[in-house]
Amino acid sequence: MGFEKTIACIGAGYVGGPTMSVIAYKCPQYKVIVVDIDEERIRRWNSDNLPVYEPGLDEIVKEVRGKNLFFTTDLEGAVKEAEIIFISVNTPTKEYGVGKGMASDLRYLEKAARDIMKYANGDKIIVEKSTVPVRAAEAISKVLSGSKKYHFEVVSNPEFLAEGTAINDLLYPDRVLIGSRETPEGIKAREEIVKIYENWVPREKIITSNIWSSELSKLAANAFLAQRISSINSLTPLCEIVGADIEEVSKNIGLDSRIGNKFLKASVGFGGSCFKKDILNLVYILRSYGLEESADYWMKVVEINEYQKTRFVYNMIKEMSNTLADKKIAVFGFAFKANTNDTRESAAITVVKKLLEEKAIVSIVDPKALENAKKDLKDVKGTVFYTEDPYEAVKDADAIAVLTEWEIFKKLDYEKIYELMRKPAFIFDGRNILDHNNLFRIGFNVYPIGKKPLTHFEKI
Ligand code: NAD
Ligand code: UDX
User: Fold this and answer.
1) 320-448 domain in CATH 1.10.565.10?
2) Looking at residue 1, what is its pLDDT?
3) Ligand 1: centre distance to CA 429 (Å)
4) DSSP 458
5) Which ligand is nearest to the CA of 335?
6) Where are the domains of the chain?
7) Whether residue 106 has its Cβ less than 6 Å from ligand 1
């Protein structure tokens, strides 16, 4: 069967893979080719053991793979065949040179642009799907202008999916944003991208805009979301001291329709590959224009998050008689949130490293993220066990630290867990997902986030 058009995507990661799978699923008339330089990743996309865990993803991939969705390392072939090329490569924080630790590292993006130029056999629309600094489209266009033969129109189409709910977010987005130059070529290219999404997204949810607004909106959206978490987390230590309950505070303020109830869940700190790096990038951009006050404001969101992670461990040390040496800590959850195997920037990385520095023995339980946890901790000194069985993890443990809000942790037999642990038994619930009163009744000393601890210790 002939396809109406071919779309390629460079980068088969957490964004490229699911996004292209949904496009292929919703647009059987298009051929979709996803390319990556990582052979192992592509091998797994072509297997039954996908490199990305997302509820609903396996089913969609099974439905369309080999029909109109293809995963390959053949970049040249994909570039030649496609009229529209999405770039969905990683744009991590730069780890060297100017802007180290703050700016976005655009080398993968530039490499993708250069490869497109090298292999192109005609005009193409290039879609920035990666999150980029504002005015990155100019930088990409500059690289692509090296081609004297063909015209490449760069369009911005930032992705707003959240991991763990990626498929749902892609099928029913709040909005799809497409920015372009406001020239006839820019508007024509933008309309081509609108046509893709129109296959399943209501037209009124497809927003078109100026390209710089589109790029900046992505950074701003992540900064605003993260800012809400840091705002609520900043109040948790006060709650723990004065006896207020952060969940009640969240609910009470979230009922104000001007505030809204989402992203007000206090936690051990936000993780994920986006929030920290995108805010650091925003701060870097603000500083580069001399906007120090605005930069300082957003930097505080990251600082509060670092404080929250550290505070969690310090609290454990303080409450467990000021020493964790040789104590066994069962870490419940290593993924940066539930329903993903992704551990990038997970609060668990910071917490576990600090526990190991204190010479604790750590036993990590996670239903999907152990493979990544092992990679994250491979160079770290200390004793770490990995298991999918929570009952195994808690055997002779002194404490449990809940770091990811996996549903399974709510449904465990905590009477049995209490029996298996050393006494006194501690639970530090970094996600406030457990039934604290019940745990206290069983005999645990319970330390939620932003609530008064429930302990059996007498003050002397
Ligand atoms: P990722 O690291 O999971 O995937 C990126 C992939 O690109 C990797 O597999 C890498 O091998 C590949 N790659 C890099 N350079 C390449 C090249 N020159 N040719 C071919 N392949 C190449 O990253 P991700 O989480 O999918 O994020 C991708 C982009 O999307 C980032 O800019 C990120 O900020 C943005 N984003 C991520 C999320 C998220 O939740 N993960 C959400 C929205 C936006
Ligand atoms: C985020 C944005 O939500 C998404 O729109 C963007 O495209 C990519 O970055 P993601 O990082 O995948 O998505 O997950 P998200 O649901 O935003 O959670 C990020 C972190 O914040 C997680 O560690 C999560 O546990 C934490 N979080 C979230 C809280 O601590 N409290 C909350 O109320 C919400």
Assistant:
1) no
2) 63
3) 32
4) P
5) 2
6) 5-210, 320-448
7) no
